[in-house]
């Protein structure tokens, strides 16, 4: 926010304005707010006080108060682009993106080159849809043309390019942002995201650690670092879990003293109120597993509430809304307010579907607003929060002996801990490509963060032992020629020629799978939904059972279709199994011809059975709570 223009005025009034502006410029936002409120008392008809109070509240994260002050400011001056752009920012952070966009457009009607409004409009367009990415990019570029000394614009443009898979350009933009502001935590965090998607996990962790050093009070920044840690190829599970325990120490345990007993009716067999918390009630991979559960929930036994952090809606959002009894938008709610809302709704069991992914509300779970709390599906590993009771999983993903790696108590259901509803456009399996190509094509749809030095070495061993075989790597992480060349260089270091690699990105990837004979899973962090998609498309895969639970999702997928023979326990065994599978083309063709039918007959497609298993788990969790002495 740039300084207000000060016209000829009463010397005392002018002096007060100068003092308040200095407070704002020095980031003394609480003092600036107090001074602005006093100014309003003295000069209620002056726009200045309302405008500054709104700006101060915005910087303090009190967006509703900011909005109220700025709407009053508009009454006094409807021709100030700063008021509209700051109001747009407040609305944006409340999740009211369309309203925010109108404010930014109004600001630009007044001043077409107003950089904060251009930046805000770009953010809104990003938030509405990636289909408007080019419009958003032009907004950011126009803002930089007007003023090249705006670290936040470089940061936002870099975040946009990361979403588009233009990761090298994204890294450059975040570094430019940090040149302008070396203490910009969000830029460090976005830099970490881009580096991790490039597979440069150690560099990513360094950037994410700097973000937490700049802002040690941000749970979001700490979550980002934990997310990246899961993919580290060399750290032990025990070392990684220590960081999750630190998250609990900083952001979970401090709330324990304020927990209050729950007054929910302790009838163990009554109809239960279930709350699902997620930012992904829309087009997202979680929908393959979540929608079937919601569609099959017993309405006689369960009343369902969705606490949705999602901004905007799509076709899947509309389907979710029809499957849910109560729909509660949460973007505008603080953790405290949201926790109180959940408590007042009488939720019995609260389900986290996000873990440490974007838009999570772990701060709400830390306040323990429901008697029973569970985490499932959206993250694949512990939240680290001792405030959450259970980690819903299966014994393949988290075998006995792995309990010490989880903050929650492990709760097993029969394998798999999920179901899968295929997309309607996937099409038929098709014949085995090797029959016509004369060579075996391996493939992966995984993101770059999973392809580490161990994976490249093992995959290179497979390709060397099968002369003429090829490897397809298809993911948004490799949409640019630069990213493709970088990955090819990693394989070249192991003697694999570039022409044996087919690197790129296609969406949807169904034709890529139809052109693949055998899929290769990553480790120590396995892939997820793409493995299930591979099986459905008739493509077997080799996986390495690594650390619980993110390193065993491939094992769960295979056990559920009764093909444990494709699970390796060492890297050498992984190579041998891939070679054996690729060396018998007739057997491979038979597998392909029958795999979809096997999948259809497996628990992956038993939506009703899976729902009953989950509901049985919920009921038993509830009975346990009812049977325990009342406590916080």
Please give a structural write-up.
The protein is α/β, with parallel strands linked by helices. The chain has three domains: 11-231, Tetratricopeptide repeat domain (Serine Threonine Protein Phosphatase 5, Tetratricopeptide repeat, Alpha Horseshoe), CATH 1.25.40.10; 259-419 and 610-627, 3-Layer(aba) Sandwich (Rossmann fold); 433-604, Rossmann fold, CATH 3.40.50. The protein is 51% helix and 9% strand. The protein has 27 helices and 13 strands. The protein has a seven-stranded parallel sheet with strand order 3-2-1-4-5-6-7, with helices on one face. A six-stranded parallel sheet has the order 10-9-8-11-12-13, with helices on both faces. Helix 4 (63-76) runs antiparallel to helix 5 and helix 9 (151-163) runs parallel beside helix 11 (185-197). It starts with 10 loop residues before the first helix and ends in a 5-residue tail after the last helix.
């Amino acid at each position: 926010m740039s300084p207000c223009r000060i016209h000829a005025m009463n010397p005392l009034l002018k002096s007060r304005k100068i003092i308040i502006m200095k407070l704002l410029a020095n980031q003394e936002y609480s003092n600036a707010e107090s001074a602005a409120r006093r100014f309003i008392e003295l000069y209620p008809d002056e726009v200045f006080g309302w405008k500054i109070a709104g700006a101060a509240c915005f910087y303090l994260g009190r967006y509703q108060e900011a909005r109220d002050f700025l709407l009053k400011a508009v009454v006094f001056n409807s021709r100030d682009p700063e008021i509209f752009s700051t109001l747009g920012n407040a609305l944006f952070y409340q999740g009211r993106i369309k309203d925010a966009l109108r404010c930014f457009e109004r600001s630009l009607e007044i001043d077409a080159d107003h950089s904060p409004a251009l930046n805000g409009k770009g953010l809104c367009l990003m938030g509405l849809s990636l289909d408007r990415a080019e419009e958003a990019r032009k907004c950011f570029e126009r803002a930089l043309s007007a003023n090249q000394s705006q670290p936040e614009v470089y940061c936002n443009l870099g975040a946009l390019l990361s979403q588009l898979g233009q990761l090298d350009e994204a890294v450059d933009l975040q570094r430019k942002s940090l040149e302008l502001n070396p203490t910009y935590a969000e830029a460090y965090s976005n830099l970490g995201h881009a580096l991790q998607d490039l597979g440069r996990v150690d560099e990513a962790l360094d950037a994410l650690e700097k973000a937490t050093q700049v802002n040690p009070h941000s749970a979001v920044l700490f979550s980002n670092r934990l997310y990246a840690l899961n993919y580290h190829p060399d750290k032990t599970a025990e070392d990684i879990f220590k960081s999750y325990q630190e998250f609990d120490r900083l952001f979970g345990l401090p709330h324990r003293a304020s927990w209050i007993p729950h007054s929910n009716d302790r009838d163990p067999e009554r109809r239960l109120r279930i709350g699902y918390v997620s930012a992904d009630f829309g087009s997202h991979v979680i929908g393959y597993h979540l929608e079937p559960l919601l569609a099959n929930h017993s309405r006689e036994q369960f009343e369902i509430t969705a606490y949705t952090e999602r901004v905007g809606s799509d076709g899947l959002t509309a389907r979710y809304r029809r499957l849910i009894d109560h729909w509660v938008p949460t973007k505008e709610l603080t953790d405290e307010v949201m926790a109180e809302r959940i408590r007042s709704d009488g939720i019995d069991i609260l389900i986290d579907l996000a873990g440490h992914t974007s838009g999570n509300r772990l701060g709400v779970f830390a306040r323990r607003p429901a008697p029973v709390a569970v985490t499932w599906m959206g993250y694949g590993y512990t939240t680290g929060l001792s405030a959450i009771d259970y980690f819903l999983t299966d014994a393949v993903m988290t075998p006995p002996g792995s309990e010490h790696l989880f903050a929650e108590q492990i709760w097993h259901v029969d394998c798999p801990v999920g179901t899968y509803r295929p997309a309607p456009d996937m099409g038929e399996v098709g014949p085995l490509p090797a029959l016509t190509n004369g060579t075996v094509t391996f493939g992966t749809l995984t993101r770059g963060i999973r392809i580490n030095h161990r994976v490249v070495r093992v995959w290179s061993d497979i390709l060397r032992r099968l002369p003429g075989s090829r490897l397809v790597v298809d993911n948004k992480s490799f949409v640019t020629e630069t990213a493709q060349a970088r990955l090819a260089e990693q394989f070249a270091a192991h003697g694999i020629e570039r022409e044996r690699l087919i690197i790129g990105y296609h969406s949807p990837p169904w034709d890529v799978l139809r052109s693949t004979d055998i899929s290769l899973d990553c480790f120590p962090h396995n892939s997820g939904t793409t493995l299930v998609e591979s099986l459905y498309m008739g493509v077997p895969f080799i996986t390495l059972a690594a650390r619980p639970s993110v390193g065993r999702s491939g094992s769960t997928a295979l056990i559920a279709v009764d093909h444990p023979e494709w699970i390796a326990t060492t890297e050498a065994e992984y190579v041998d199994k891939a070679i054996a599978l690729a060396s018998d083309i007739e057997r491979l063709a038979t597998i392909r011809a029958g795999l979809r039918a096997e999948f259809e007959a497996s628990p992956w497609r038993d939506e009703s059975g899976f729902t009953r298993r989950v509901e049985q788990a919920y009921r038993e969790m509830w009975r346990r709570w009812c049977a325990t002495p009342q406590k916080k």
